[in-house]
Design goal:
Ferritin, 177 residues
């Protein structure tokens, strides 16, 4: 018998994705309060992306006729010591999510749950991109910490995080809003 059913573990991940959404909103609010609109917009977009990841997981559980639990979310940070801290927090968060996604993939594989394993493949690929984007952004923010407007220019020029929707993404409950 598996240690934990995949559906129970996926429900825990739904909570993690919603928590990530809320923390990205907290980062966006911080940048908005610092009059850094492009950094704020970047994190608002990241929040929507995390919400959509949670809703993809919700749809999978609905399709698999499994229970869905929508979690309570704790309050998140909206104040940081400097412009670097929210990006550092985001990279740490994405690295943690990568570990969580990999554990879900392994659980599905170890349980012989081929549908769950196939579902998780997209998230494994997505986490490579998420960590890469946050790593790049952290490098830029650290280099420009004394002049955050340089980060704003970088985001305007590079359109970081503004990629088009991935047509291979799993469907989200309620549609990707």
């Amino acid at each position: 018998m598996p240690e934990k059913p995949f559906a129970a573990a996926l429900n825990e991940q739904i909570a993690n994705e919603f928590a990530a959404q809320q923390q990205y909103i907290g980062a966006a609010v911080y940048y908005e309060s610092q009059t850094l609109p492009r950094l704020a917009a970047f994190f608002y977009r990241q929040a929507v992306e995390e919400r959509n990841h949670a809703m993809m997981m919700v749809q999978y559980l609905l399709d698999a006729n499994q229970e869905v639990r929508i979690p309570d979310i704790e309050a998140k940070l909206t104040h940081f010591d400097d412009v670097v801290a929210p990006v550092r927090m985001a990279l740490d968060q994405e690295q943690r999510v990568t570990e969580e996604i990999n554990a879900l993939f392994k659980l599905a594989r170890d349980n012989g749950d081929y549908q769950a394993e196939q579902f998780m493949q997209w998230f494994v690929k997505e986490q490579v991109e998420e960590v890469s984007i946050m790593t790049d952004l952290l490098t830029i923010v650290e280099r420009s910490k004394d002049s955050a407007l340089l980060v704003e220019e970088y985001l305007a020029r590079e359109k970081l995080g503004e990629e088009q929707a991935d047509p291979t993404a799993p469907p989200a409950a309620g549609g990707a809003l």
